[in-house]
Amino acid sequence: MRVIVCGAGQVGINIARYLAAERNDVTVVDRSSELIEQLAETLDIRAVAGHASSPDVLARAGAEDADMLIAVTLVDEINMIACQVAHSMFNVPTKIARIRRPSYLDGHWADLFAREGMPIDTIISPEREVASAIMRRLSRPGATEMIPFADGRVRLIGVRLDDACPIVNTPLRQLTALFPDLNINVVGIIRAERKFVPKARDQMLVGDEVYFVVDNAHVARAMAAFGHEEREAERAVIIGGGNIGHRLASLIETELPHVRLRLIERDRDKAAELTDTLRRTTVLQGDALSEELLEEANFENADLTIALTDDDETNILASLLAKRAGSSRTVALINKSAYSALVSPLDIDVVINPRAITVSQILQHVRRGRVLAAFSIGDDFGEALEVEILETSVVADKDLRVLKMPAGSIVGAILRGDQVIIPRGRTIIRAGDRVVLFCMTSMLKRVEQMFAVRLEFF
What's residue 164's pLDDT? Predict the structure, then answer.
């Protein structure tokens, strides 16, 4: 696949790295010549310096032969124009744009993004997706990850194991005997620097970050089995009133009306704006790292603190201070992957990585075959995919023993009609099934080929 990525920020670089590693023909466009030179030296890509919305620059980037354009510059309008030029002048089949300004995303103006208007096939809004990701975690306290599949019938959940987990040091093959009626399948484990898809003989240890697939009807029981029965938050504090913080506060007001919410915003004008637009949220203006504001925000009685400023260091420090002041749980927005290793030792409960969330939203439009959803898991650990099985799929009517999934991959669950099936060795995949699987990054190409469709367009 020939892909042009416009914008060499954190999101653009990670998309380019992801696609290049899978041997796609990738070209990155950015106006910074210095950054372009660095990318050309470090990644197996083409790099073009110039404005992404300029027809001559897109022409040099190979837009005439491109299958997809992904516009993720820092400016919404440039992303929009790049897609328009790609459509009108080069007839690029698929165009994806990152749009951040809330006014563009208002449903009242939805007709703007259409073939007759601004021809963008898919809009990615990091702020909107990040807020939604946090809300999913709020619905199940104790989860570090919560991803819905199969119209919400199946969930992929991440948890961190502590001494309260009753099934640590237990081989996975014994889980079926211990919980015979529990539809659950452990698909991935992160243990210190090691990341792996476990086998039946493997055990889970204290400190592990475990990812499992579960029937949505069994989520509460599964969380209890992993030692997580935390109650839902009743008092929460949001630090940072930018687009993410503002949207999250609005969602909490609408969907979790029982939560008493406080929001801290450093900028005086922004705090005043938030006071006018939020109905039930107490807005405090000031520095969240100051002792005075820590007392005023009443962190001592907070069930949950969510740090969402645009500075990683501030989010980490604010989370630590909140925990020290008495907050039960903390969530921190962290962009830099180098900080990920600090999370567990510093006792930050959940990390939100906006870069990974944005990449996940784009991946499902890049994957071949009948991929209905794709999510990046962990820090370059792998992907969770939902795949529709057609009659022409190479895996149709095959049992898992015959298929022999590549090492580093696993089928987590199968949705067949209204039935959620946790597969075993003799389970047969049927046409019409929706399969949820997990695959480590190194195995993605092989798994994608295995679940490809023959004669898909006939």
Answer: 86
Give the β-pairing of 409-416 and 419-421: antiparallel
| Better-predicted residue by pLDDT, 403 or 311 | 311
Over range 244-266, report the average pLDDT.
Answer: 95
In order, the DSSP letters of 32-86 are -HHHHHHHHHHSSSEEEES-TT-HHHHHHTTGGG-SEEEE--S-HHHHHHHHHHH
Angle at 356 between CA 350 and CA 359, to 5 degrees: 155
Is the CB of residue 431 less than 8 Å from the CB of residue 369?
no
Q: How confident is the model at residue 344 (pLDDT cuts 50, 70, 90)?
A: low
In order of 149, 257, 404, 429, the CA distances from 399 in angstroms are 22, 47, 9, 6
Cα 184 to chain centroid distance, Å, stands at: 21
pLDDT at residue 111 greater than cutoff 50: yes
Laid out side by side, the sheet with 434-440 consists of 371-377, 382-388, 434-440, 409-416, 419-421
Average pLDDT score, the chain = 89
Tokens 């599949």 sit on residue:
149
* Beta-ladder partners of 49: 30
Alpha carbon distance 297, 237 (integer Å): 7
Beta bridge partners of 94: 68
CA-CA-CA-CA torsion sign (300, 302, 306, 309): negative
Q: What is the spatial distance between Cα 229 and Cα 345, in angstroms, rounded to a whole number?
A: 22
All structural domains of the chain, each given as residue ranges with its CATH number in brackets, are 2-124 (3.40.50.720), 235-327 (3.40.50.720), 357-450 (3.30.70.1450)
